[in-house]
Amino acid sequence: MLAFEVALLTGRYVATAVDDRGRAEWPPHPARLFSALVAAHFEALDRSEAERAALEWLERQGPPEITAPEAAAREVVTVFVPVNDTSVVGSLDDEALLVREARAALDAAREKGGKALAAAEKKLAKAEARFEDAVRKALARAPAGKEGKDGPARAASLLPERRTRQPRTFPSSAPAELGSAAPPLVFAWPSADPTPEQRATLDALAARVTRLGHSASLVSVRLRDDRPEATWIPDDVGRGRAGDEAVLRVVGPGQIEALCAAFELQADAPGRVMPASFQRYVRPRAAGEASAPAPRFGDGWIVLRRVAGPRLPSIRGVDVARTVRKAMMAAYGPGAPEILSGHRASGGPSERPHLAYVPLPFVGSEHADGAILGVALILPRDATREERLAVYRALDAWERQRREDDEERPRLPVHLGRAGELVLERLEEHALQSTLRPATWCAEAVSWASATPVALDRNPGDLGARDPRREAAAYAEAEETVATACERIGLPRPARVTVTPAAPLAGAEKARYFPPFQAGSPPLQRVLVHARLTFDAPVRGPILLGAGRYFGLGLFRPLREHG
């Protein structure tokens, strides 16, 4: 057994959530602890080979259990801080980064040779020329001995109190059980079996760690001989108490090499993704404790909100979803994995859940108009760490392709032909619109209503038959198909399914207004219907049913008792 105890010396943990800059991270991610240990190793004047070997051993031990007390998030206050002298330092840093990237690309191209090597050499020469030009321009701005009329003003503008100020937030959490000292955090590997030498080396290394997360999070880290009861445990099947699941960043084999490579490429560049894998954690349930049934789709969404372009109705949702999928796969490059494409390497459809591209329509309120406010990227609950990492890498590559200058949030265009260009942006703070909040669609409820129609897996017959018996039989068949679809995504069979010709939610479009949807091999046109679901007990979302569920069809919204 191996366990690290982390004491928060100031009583607070300051770190920003990876998917929401306005929210504090809690519990601390295991990848942060590992990065802190690596930083302590490289800060030493005389680096120990034993420390490096111990860290390489640790990165192979898998995700740890975590013991973390409940924490209260501090109210986030926006402060304005002076920026660096971007007119000189910023431009040089940018050009230097391009030179380092070009040199790394040249090293990678040496093995290929030929045109690839020639192109890399040309790119490096161009980057070095740009850097030298930037240096000359920086020196020309302040020639020695020539102050100029605006010299004093320009010099004064470099002082912190005179610089341009930009808004910044510093989310933090504090353990709720604060007394004379904050209760410690514990990261434990129950099955790890370090040698006495490895334990001593890791303990000495941990003693040199001074912060975790932001520099304001002062900590003391040491090994301990026991481990308390875990409050968060790794879980690869997504079974936890309702609302008690989290996706945390963890490490695996090769983490030190990945951190070193990222550092060489200036890892603090905008838009970076810290090298890490993703692991679902849950709170352990007490014996006999049951959780509300949950579908195979997870609630750790990546939300892209609409920031420009036409205000599209929900009937264009499948077009938007398919275009976003195409952009993600193109950004990933050749060999896009099954989690992104939904197809096996052989070309056939995936036999297990994969990423769903779900447009989010504004429905269910008094002034709802059904417009698409954003797109959710929804992973299966049992997605592996590698699959989650592939999705984040694809999205980051897409953003890097679209980033301009020092833009922190690149805009992602979605070209829709004659309909124009829908522009999306990754949502990294608490959404003001409830439509863009995963909790809106993932809450527990007994009753649910469709926001977009379900593409039925089987043809139910003529729902518009003039013969009442044929019509009733068709509706009964459609309701049976919807009930079976619930079981297919891991939910219990509904106590009642009501198929309706009209949209059950305010702002939702009738099924007959949606374009024909084809699925299967060979492609067959599917019947589209709206529905209401009633379960015997509350179930959790998100509920996506039918043949079009990976493109936003069959999206259900929970209904409160009054709704």
Automatic annotation (TrEMBL):
Stretches for region Disordered: 141-177
Stored InterPro entries: Cas_GSU0054
Coiled coil regions, renumbered to chain: 92-137
Keywords: Coiled coil
Domain of life of the native organism: Bacteria
Name of the molecule in the record: Type I-U CRISPR-associated protein Cas5/Cas6
Source organism: Sorangium cellulosum
